[in-house]
Task: structure prediction
Amino acid sequence: MNVSNIPVAILAGGLATRLRPLTEKVPKVLLPVAGKPFLAHQLELLRRQGIRRVVLCLGYLGEMVTSQFGDGHDWGVQLEYSFDGPTLLGTGGALRQALSKLGGEFFVLYGDSYLTAPFGLVAEAFDQSGRRGLMTVYRNEGLYDTSNVLFRDGRVVLYDKTARLPEMRHIDYGLSLFRASVFEEWPEKGRFDLAEVMRRLMAQGELAGFEVPERFHEIGSPAGLAELERLLSRNNSIQPQMGTDEHR
Result:
């Protein structure tokens, strides 16, 4: 599968209450990190991965994002937008709302995640699995957050954000891939969570898994925001010596 033909849906419509007061007047994706809005870092990273089309699923203060990022030309991607409307639809409902812009299959990424997983290999694994959904997982061992996945033989056997079972060694990494038919089964304009979609696919034996080798980074919490600020600032400071504009 050629990742340049697969769009990425970025879920960026939430209220970001954990980051208040920083997000009272600014949406989370526009928070400054290492000298630029976080979304700029995300789009640059996606462009280096070979992604060419991105659909931003917006809600709270979404107009600020559209006015600043426009059609995405300055970041080397084609950028489109989908709005929840007057009522927030949840992560699953936002994707259902955006289906007409996403096509037959698409990646899903959270608006606070900075992920260096190899998108091309993820797409290949999804294609070879023959399943309708794929979750990337990281062997977390409870380190960066509570492990919530039992991963075995290339398949997600159990996914639960509340049950903390000792055999759960992995965590949902934050990048997934779906066929559009998965969301067509859910009601339009309905509010539901992406985790509900994952659990239904898991019960049907339709949720493949792909283990990534490197940890995730995020700005969903003050600690995560501070850590990514340090990481990207450090990478920026060594770019001239490396002679490249790529982050590790």
Notes: The chain has eight helices and 13 strands. The CA atoms of residues 125 and 210 lie 7 Å apart. Residues 222-242 form the longest helix (21 residues). Residues 239-248 have pLDDT under 50 and may be disordered.
